[in-house]
Amino acid sequence: MFTIYVYVLDTFADWEMGYAISELNSGRFFKKDAPRISLKTVSHSKEPIRSMGGLTIVPDCLIDDIVVSETSVLLLPGADTWNDQKHAAILEKASEFLAIGAAVGAICGAVTALAGLGLLDQRPHTSNGPGFLEMFCPDYKGQDFYIDKPSAADNNLITAGSTGALLWAKQIIEHLGVFRADTLESWYAYFSTGKSEHFFALMQTLPSCDAPV
Question: CA 172 to CA 176: how far, in whole Å?
Fold first, then answer.
């Protein structure tokens, strides 16, 4: 079983997480033998969190409750509040995850936070475009490892810029191996193009052709 920890912080960009967490939590397109998923929201306190879209979320658990293991995954969303020192603890956890080979997914502002700790200096990664990380992280030294794409996967680190949420979700799902390969390709083709032939191809990859919501 995989445990997916979704870090939530005030002003987090809720839409950036949407594709990934909806598919991982619902399991609607999982293959028959997919590992089970437990998805938990986590934060620095149990106080309600207000997203950028105005959603209120009460975290399921605290940072100290996170189990760091190879079957744990940490997802970090973009937000306007990453500079607050109270988020240093989750960034330390991210470093622990990366060190043992556990998966970390970071998007937009969370990538900047990782860069600020030097965690991207020797790892392939992406962000909101060449030069973006230098604007906010004067000590950033990962230019030689920068990949100019919406999302980039390198072993257990999956990073994305603000426009890369769909590809980011695809790469997270692929890393976990919970979709059949043809299901994942059809899913990505449908949601990236909106063409009906990809929807029907997606349905044909599932055990039942009953269309999910």
Answer: 6
Got the DSSP string for 72-85? Answer: EEEEE---S-TTSG
Give the DSSP letter string of 128-155: SSTTHHHHH-TT---GGGB--SSEEEET
Strands 157-160 and 151-154: antiparallel
| Closest by Cα among 153, 40, 168 to 108 | 168
User: With a cut of 70, which residues of the chain have pLDDT below it?
Assistant: 208-213
Q: What are the Cα distances from residue 107, in Å, to 16, 26, 104, 205?
A: 7, 21, 10, 29
pLDDT tens digits, 79-137: 999 999 999 999 999 999 999 999 999 999 999 999 999 999 999 999 999 999 999 99
Answer yes or no: 108 catalytic. yes
Using DSSP, state whether 15 is helix, strand or coil.
helix
pTM over 0.85: yes
